[in-house]
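Methods, example record. To illustrate the input and output format used throughout this study, we show the complete record for tRNA (guanine-N(1)-)-methyltransferase. The sequence lines were provided to the predictor; the line carrying structure tokens was produced by it.
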Amino acid sequence: MQFGVISIFPEMYQALTDFGVTGRAVDKGLVSVDVWNPRDFTIDKYQTVDDRPYGGGPGMLMKVEPLKYAIEAAKAKLGSQSKVVYLSPQGETLTQDKAQQLAQEASLIFLAGRYEGIDERLIETQIDEEISIGDYVLSGGELASMVVMDSVIRLVPEVLGHDMSAVEDSFVDGLLDCPHYTRPEEHEGRKVPDVLLSGNHEKIRQWRLKQALGRTWEKRPDLLAKRDLSKEEDALLQEYKRDVQG
Ligand SMILES: NC(=O)c1ccc(N[C@@H]2CC[C@@H](O)C2)nc1
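The corresponding predicted structure is encoded as:
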């Protein structure tokens, strides 16, 4: 899968390309990340990418043309059909389902804005989708684009490897994660639940599913409301509720 990014701070993307799961995916050639800097598409001596807003108001806006030319350069490499995504609080909120959708694309181009934003006409003519990573304002779209890219890259086949992707499937489908433990078996008097030491994989699967259902019920009932429960899941959740009510 190919990713293109438009940003005046290309070096920021080393956070994604140089570390961890996403870094290894790039090293293995499973994904590519190319960054185009709008400053390289300016024609004035000062490489101006911003200007004052019509109508007055604080701050500066990003000019249309450097962004347009940078997007065109990205499309020349990644394909003219590449979906162009703009990160802003006005966008559709990112969910795991949205990440799954984006992961079906062969290539994606992200536009990371700075200053007070970009000229509306760029959005009207060049942007296919607006995405928000949450209801808060950031100083730039770069971190938001890396959050989206990370959530998508881990869904690309082979990135997580077969065993991990199975783990993803069992929990990502709309439930919160269950508790996890590793050595030592006891820490400050707190023992690892016996079931996890039992070697009984069916019991362990049921315990983990029950904990995921219970946690989702306690912390995110809105997620539970959106999810149909199997008979087994319903029974496990009822058991969890009885356990906590004593
Ligand atoms: N919640 C978000 O996803 C988000 C995205 C971008 C952003 N800030 C940029 C800076 C200027 C304009 O391009 C938008 N803030 C918040």
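Annotations derived from this record:
The two ends are 50 Å apart (CA to CA).
The chain has ten helices and nine strands.
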